[in-house]
Specification:
By secondary structure, the protein is mainly α. It has a domain at about 1-120. Helix content is about 45%, strand content about 5%. It has nine helices and three strands; from the N terminus they run ααβββααααααα. The chain has helices at about 1-10, 10-15, 45-55, 70-75, 80-95, 120-135, 140-145, 150-155, 160-170; strands spanning about 25, 30-35, 40-45. A three-stranded antiparallel β-sheet has the order 1-2-3. α1 (about 1-10) packs across α6 and α6 (about 120-135) packs antiparallel against α7. The model has no long low-confidence stretch (mean pLDDT about 85).
Length: about 180
């Protein structure tokens, strides 16, 4: 699931509900209809994602979930917080963030101006956008791959690495 998040930039719920019918191995594409916006997004598979998909067990039912257990959980919770909470717990057990044993609502969550949030599955969406832009993929292409509605939204997800900036500045002429 992490590879899907990193190599497609899609949301956890959309990835959990991904079915084999949306995976086109001939065209090497994955098709999503995002639940949040209803946008249809077609993501070409990069080689690491293709290799991962080919390593997954596929059943006899083409409409089965790619990630069986997560798909069932997403269906059960109607895309609720259960998936995100489970991923957060996993990150906590691995030491990547603090454990949240009581799952209480985070104070200040309603505020648009809040402190940096803990690492989450959604962090992979930010990482995917930043990695693509740092790799030199044009912003408009990145925006289309992840399904952002505007350049402004896409920019919020972007963190340009120092080395990318150095490479860009090294191309300037000496005057």
């Amino acid at each position: 699931m992490v590879k899907f998040g990193l190599y497609t930039g899609q949301r956890l719920g959309d990835l959990a509900r991904l079915r084999w019918t949306a995976v086109d191995l001939e065209e090497k594409e994955v098709r999503f209809c995002t639940r949040k916006t209803g946008t249809v997004v077609i993501v070409p598979m990069c080689k690491p994602l293709e290799d991962h998909i080919l390593s997954l067990p596929a059943g006899d039912k083409p409409d089965a979930y790619v990630h069986t257990e997560l798909g069932k959980l997403a269906e059960f919770s109607n895309g609720g917080p259960h998936l995100s909470r489970q991923f957060g717990d996993l990150l906590g057990r691995c030491g990547f963030r603090a454990l949240n044993s009581n799952h209480a609502k985070i104070e200040g969550r309603e505020s648009k101006l809040r402190a940096v949030k803990a690492l989450s599955f959604h962090s992979l969406r930010h990482s995917a956008v930043s990695m693509m832009k740092n790799a030199g993929i044009p912003a408009v292409v990145v925006q289309d791959i992840v399904g952002h509605a505007s350049e402004a939204v896409s920019q919020v997800y972007t963190k340009i690495e120092t080395e990318t900036k150095r490479t860009a500045l090294a191309k300037l002429p000496t005057i």
